[in-house]
Design a protein that fits this description.
Elements: H1 2-18, E1 22-25, H2 30-36, E2 39-45, H3 50-65, E3 72-77, H4 82-87, E4 95-100, E5 103-106, H5 114-121
Parallel strand pairs: 1-3, 2-3
Antiparallel strand pairs: 2-4, 4-5
């Protein structure tokens, strides 16, 4: 039983390390965070939805590969932040937006891959 607990702790720690370059946003900090950071790539998702799960590793890889490019990656859990997602026009999962200065650009590639994320952002 102790080994199972240690394994679970390791998996949770590893998950947190992988996503360390992604800021989790909520209703309280979304707009101040966007205002403070001129380049934010936001993923709106529902973690239980398979398409959100499928894209998570590519989103994390892109965040890691672009961490030195002054781009901040952020994520909103729409199952917890429903009002924020509705107010930001989220009508499908996942939805991606690049907040660059005063502009909001929607990512609309057919495939959500690391290379497509990088091409769109750069």
């Amino acid at each position: 039983m102790k080994a199972l607990g240690l394994l679970l702790l390791f998996v949770i720690t590893l998950s947190n390390v992988r996503a360390a370059n992604i800021k989790i946003l909520n209703e309280d900090d979304f707009f101040p965070f966007i205002d403070e950071n001129p380049n934010v790539f936001v993923k709106y998702c529902a973690p239980w939805y398979s398409k959100c799960q499928d894209v998570q590793s590519d989103f994390e890889k892109a965040a890691e590969e672009l961490k030195d490019n002054k781009i901040v990656f952020a994520q909103v859990d729409c199952s917890l932040e429903q009002e924020l997602c509705i107010n930001n026009g989220v009508d499908k999962y996942p939805k991606f937006e690049l907040h660059r200065d005063e502009d909001i650009l929607e990512f609309r590639y057919k495939e959500n891959t690391v290379e497509n994320f990088k091409t769109f952002i750069e």
